[in-house]
Amino acid sequence: MVLERITATRYVTPLREGGSLPGVVEADDLGTYVVKFRGAGQGRRVLVAEIVCGELARRLGLRTPDLKLIDLDPQIGVREPDEEVQDLLKASTGLNLAVDFLPGALGFDPLGWTADPRFASRVVWFDGLIHNVDRSWRNPNLLVWHRDTWLIDHGAALWFHHNWPTADPQRPFDTGDHVLASFATDLDGAAAELSARITPELLAEVTALVPDEWLDDEPGFDSARAVREAYVEHLLQRAHGPQEWLTRPADGGGAR
Fold first, then answer.
1. 68 with 170, same domain?
2. What DSSP element (H or E) covers 200?
């Protein structure tokens, strides 16, 4: 399996809610997408995290928007009047990541929506697995669309890959700040269910979706294959090792 590859035809508008300045873009398949650009802030590793985490979530039964690879022609940015956006588009010529745009979706509000306990428990455990610190009450990164809750924006997850020598599969994850923590009443059940589904084959399938050019020249590795293997090994150890990394509000939060 590979991600479908499309070509950008028109840059529509920037989304300024986040620091990486994603944009709404139309493509040659007549679809509309939120595009995450390789030339933004933390670069290609954010796109790697989006693919690995988004596609892993999908395979675990959690809803995430469809992902595609999108080619950006340098001419797309020429007519953009905003200098900041123009610079970003020029720096992102080539392959970027397109996330399916969910028209009319509403942001998840814990005061306005009640999350199913099983769903909440699975999401909290999953976010712990991928080191996702960006699903707090301040920034839920959840959308309500067609009466379902969708997970978005995983670029801040897998943050250990910004400094591979410090990667620790047992690094604690504090659930106390998670937007769904109060609904997650069966974390043990979620851990038992989901960890059993995290296999070497599943992780190899997910990491294989990342283009080689986003993994090549990673410091400390001699090939894109070696980087993929490092992601697989890290997530396997986290899923199947002692899960003391999942700290809960009752534990007092923080590292043990």
1. no
2. helix 200-207
